[in-house]
Each structure stands twice: as structure tokens, then as C-alpha cells.
Amino acid sequence: MTKKIMLGNEAFARGAWEAGVKVVSSYPGTPSTEVTESAAKYDEMYVEWAPNEKVGVEVAMGASLGGVRALSCMKHVGLNVAADPFYTAAYTGVTGGMVVLVADDNGCHSSQNEQDSRYHGRAAGVPVIEPSDAQECKDFIKLAYDISEKYDTVVLMRSNTRVSHSRGIVELSERIEKEEIPYEKNMSKYVAMPAMARKLHVAQEKRLADITADSSVLGLNRVDKGDGKIGIITSGICYQYVKEALPEVSVLKLGLVNPISKKEIEDFAGTVENLYIIEEGNAFLEEQIRAMGIKVAGGKDMFTIQGEYSANMIRKAFGRDLPESAVESVDDAPGRPPLLCAGCPHKGLFYVLSKLKTTVLGDIGCYTLAALPPTSAMDTTLCMGASITMAHGFEKATGSSENTVAVLGDSTFFHSGITGLINMSYNESKGTVIILDNRITGMTGHQDNPASGRNAKGEMAPAVNIEALVKACGVKNVRVVDPLDVKKVEEVLKEEIYRDELSVVITRRPCALIVKQSNIPCEVTDKCKNCRLCMKVGCPAIELKDGKPFIASDRCVGCGLCMNVCPFDAIKSTGKENR
Fold it and tell me: What is the pLDDT of residues 21-38, one digit of tens each?
């Protein structure tokens, strides 16, 4: 049997391949992104980046209708975007197996909120499966397809940052090609109009009841017998923490976290003196178990609903000694504020926006970091695409759009910005929208998008023309500018942010990490007047040394932004390449 060390996300992709999945449609979102990137390496699967998660789920449902196994992956906030098709697919059921994989971000490592996606599964009425390590990521997604087809249901596979981004040893198997199921017209199943939907809801409830009755034989739950004094019900990554912190206790490990079986819980509770529930996020399991009338000695009264847990947190809660090497807090560690990369094309734009004291309705992407000093050039970040619609609402509320802009990236524009721009045009907004076109989806690790000219497998693909699309939305005033040319950016913005009609400015320059930079660093000369304007661009290569700006040559990529900003011509290229 071949074994390989894999990320949890790589194992998910391997499991999908082994299960005979034919179609994968996803939108990148940390911590889920590597599932789809890894899936793209398997030739037997068609893999694509969809413009957003709603599209991804709909594509996967279409593939399921066509009789093959399908997968759609996203992060927790992406499931909100996909909720519309997801909830109705829970009614209709499937033809080929259908799995929606969602990765939660406990602790907000790369997200604007924490969210417990188990509630989506419970509200939609679909089974929710949660693995604890890389091996289970592979095994459980294969089981998920069997469950999907056996019970005629979409399955929600829930991961989180630690499961998705931890590595483990995985036993590999061969791919099993599933015979495609011929399409048959079935209006009563797939046309979710009211008369059909009421009947579909009844069928959905029966599926859940059947799954609940069979939960003990599905191969997802198990009991680790201990001394019987303490019994813990847990799932996902918390299982690993419990086993490390309290190896002697009895554990009911739930791989199927929705629905849960009262009989399984009661049987386990009857074998222990005191029952505890340990779960990251909300009291999802605890609330249901307490509602069953089962006595629980401790749960969220011992732990927080916020952030991530750890073995030491559990040890401490149960009064156990911590290891001598344990670190309880890193609050005293030196701070390292996040900054946009050296050479990042967004820096020039935000330098100008800060200089003009512009009100900036922001969005989700690398550029969200521009909200931090030294530029402090972003006023809001709500969700994907909200920059445009919030700017429109702001203008309607205040009666003015002067010196106010919406800022979002190219991938975010395709994800959720187009409809907002149409709304601005249709409702005669006078605002300015800035689309930061860096030719890639940067924040999640450089995935291609509809404007990049390549697909998920790296093959050449048609590229959407952003200018033409913007004009088709009804925008007459469209400008394109190089964001590192700060003088031109300032000139264009001064014209557009006071224009008495809707306008779009596209700042276009590839991400510094996908296009090789000059590698010839800049340096500060003796012309420097110590005005420190160069430091206001927030470049990680520029620092203070002996009270004056200094450019660290090993971090400088020679983009020239600092030279464009300096009013005294005190910065020049060294002419020598970094080694």
C-alpha cells in the first residue's frame, strides 16, 4: 500500500479522485484553496475556477444532474454566497454524488468573520461530515459520495484551517471509475416550484431520518474507550487536542456531526461518569445534546466560542499540569504588522488616495491591508463586492459622491462586483469605482480568474475584457492607468472623483509576485531632505536608519515607486542586481 505525506486539502482532492469524481467547480478561498489546486493535477477530473461560489455549486449540481460525481469547494463566507442553490439542492437531491466542501476559519486567520458552517448543514437539512486528520480527509470524502448517492442528498464536508493545512500520512488507493448515470427527465424532482417543493421537503426530512437511524453503521463515528470517569464528545480537529491532552478518557468521536443520533449519544453517556462536549465554534453539538435531556457536565461554560482551541487549553480547563515547554500566550512577542509586498502595484494607488484624503469603500483582497498605516486609506471592508454597493448607498445617503471611491480587485469584481456596478449605472449613481487589475487572484495564492487568460489547469483560456464589460454595464467614463505612475494616478483621480456622473478607473499592473521584477534595488542618496514621503507608501524595503529613510537592498525589487514619490529626486537605482 502506497503512503504519502499530504496536506488535508491535498488528501481531500486525492479522495475525490479515488471516488471517481468527474467535475470540480470552486472559487478560491483560504483555507480551502489547495483542494481545487490539487484536484487540477488529476487529468481524469475536469476542474475549473468559477467566478464565485454560487456558480461553483450550480455547475456541480448540473454535473450531478448529468450523472457524474461532482465537487464544489469554498471557504465559510463563500458558503453564504452559495446558499441559494445549496438550500434548494438539499430539497431536490442528486443523481450523481454531490459534495460541497467548506473550510471554516476559526480565529479569523484570513477572514472577516468566524462562522460555524455546521449550522448551514442543519438549516439546509443535509448531512455534515467532519474529518480530524489528512487520512480521514481522504477516506471521509469517499464515504461522502457513497452517502450522497445512497440517500439521494447533497453532502456538506466541513473542514477548518488546522485540518486543511496540517500534514499527515495518507494511504493511497486507486481510482474507481463510476459508471455515468443516464439523464432522465424528472420535473417532480428537479423543478423546485412550490407544488413540487412541498413534496421535496417531505422527502428531505425522510432522508435525514434514515441517515440518523443508520449513523452508527456509516463508518464515520467511533468510540475510543477510556477509564470511564470522563467521557468527551468531540469532532474534527478538537479530537486531536483531546487525545493529546487527556489520553486516558473515553471519547465519542463524531465524523457525522449532522444529523446526530440520540441513541448513540445516550449509549455513550451511559458508559461514563461525567460527560463533556468539546467543540470549536458555537455550541452546535452541545445545544442539541442538552435538548435531548442528556446530562452534560461541561461544555461552553468551560470554553470560548471564539478562536481556536489547543491541547493546553483543554489541559488547563480540566486542571491538568501543562508541559514545561508550554507557551500560554504570545502577546509579548514582537509585532510584525502585515504590509503589501515590495513592488506591489496597489501601493501607488493607495498612496494617492491617502494623499487626497479620499473616503474609500473597500473590499476583500490583498489591498485590504491598505487600511493599515502608513496609508490608512480604506474606510470599510464588509464582504466580496460590497465596496461598489456601499459606495452607491453612501452617495444616496449623503447626496454627494465627491472624493469618495469604491475599490476592489479584478477577481472580486468578477465574483460580486458586476451586479453592483449595473445597479450604480441603472440607478444613476455619480460615484467612482476603482478596479485593481493585477491579472491574478492574489490574496489566496495566485489563482487564475476570468481576466487572466488561463484556466484552473494552467491552460490558455479566453480572457474577459474588463473595459468592454464595464462599458456594457452602462459606464461611459472608463480610464486605465499604471498605479506606479503616481503623478498620472493623481491626475486621473482628481478628474474622476469630482465628475458629475459614474466613472470607472482601472489600475493595471501585474502582481509583483507573478511577473519578474528588475531585481535592481534602489537607494537613498545624499539629496534626501528627510521628508519621509517615501515611507508613506508602506514598502517593507524602506525603513528608518540613523533617523533617515534607508532602503534595504535585499528586500527591494526595484519597482521605482519610491523614486516616483520622492519630491527631491533623492532616490535612484543602484544599477546593480541583487544576488
Answer: 999 999 999 999 999 999
User: Residue 109 corresponds to which cell in the numbers above?
Assistant: 486567520
d(CA 66, CA 73) in angstroms, rounded, equals 19
In terms of phi and psi (left: phi > 0; alpha: psi -120 to 50; beta: otherwise), the region of 446 is left
Closest CA to 166 of 15, 3, 4, 7: 7
What confidence score (pLDDT) does residue 200 get?
96
Backbone angles phi, psi at 75, to 5 degrees: -90, 175
Q: Which of 425, 405, 366, 409 is nearest to 507 (CA)?
A: 409
| Contact yes or no for 82/90 (Cβ under 8 A) | no
CB 277 within 8 A of CB 296: yes
Q: Residue 324's pLDDT band (boundaries 50, 70, 90)?
A: confident
Q: How many CB atoms lie within 10 A of CB 504?
A: 27
Distances (CA, A) of 199 to 7, 206, 480: 42, 11, 53
Cα separation, 302 vs 323, in Å, equals: 20
Task: Name, in order, each residue with C-beta under 8 angstroms of 230's C-beta and a sequence gap of 6 or more.
Answer: 246, 249, 250, 272, 273, 274, 276, 318
Cell numbers at residue 171, please?
A: 494511504
Q: What is the grid cell recorded at 291?
A: 435538548
Nine-digit cell at 384?
A: 466580496
**Exposure of 253 in the CB half-sphere (CA atoms within 13 A):** 22
What secondary structure does DSSP assign to 208-268, as a single string? HHHHHHHGGGSSS-EEE---SSEEEEEEHHHHHHHHHH-TTSEEEEESEEES--HHHHHHH
- Say if CB 533 and CB 575 are below 8 A apart: no
| CB 309, CB 280: distance < 8 Å | yes
Q: Alpha-carbon distance 560 to 574, whole Å?
A: 11
Structure confidence by residue, pLDDT tens digits, 393-429 = 999 999 999 999 999 999 999 999 999 999 999 999 9
| Confidence band of 327 (pLDDT split at 50, 70, 90) | low
CB atoms within 10 A of CB 323: 10
Average pLDDT over residues 333-361: 90
Radius of gyration of the chain (CA): 27
DSSP strand pairing (70-75 vs 155-160): unpaired
Burial (CB count <10 Å: 0-12, 13-18, 19+), residue 172: middle
- Per residue in 241-252, pLDDT (tens digit) is 999 999 999 999
| Cβ proximity of 487 and 564 under 8 Å | yes
- Contact, 63 vs 22, CB < 8 A? yes
Mean pLDDT across the stretch 365-390?
95
- 266, 290 Cβ separation under 8 angstroms: no
Greatest distance between any 2 Cα atoms in the chain: 80
Whether the predicted pLDDT of 328 surpasses 70:
no
Give which of 303, 227, 221, 226 is closest to 265, Cα–Cα: 221
pLDDT band (50, 70, 90) for residue 337: confident
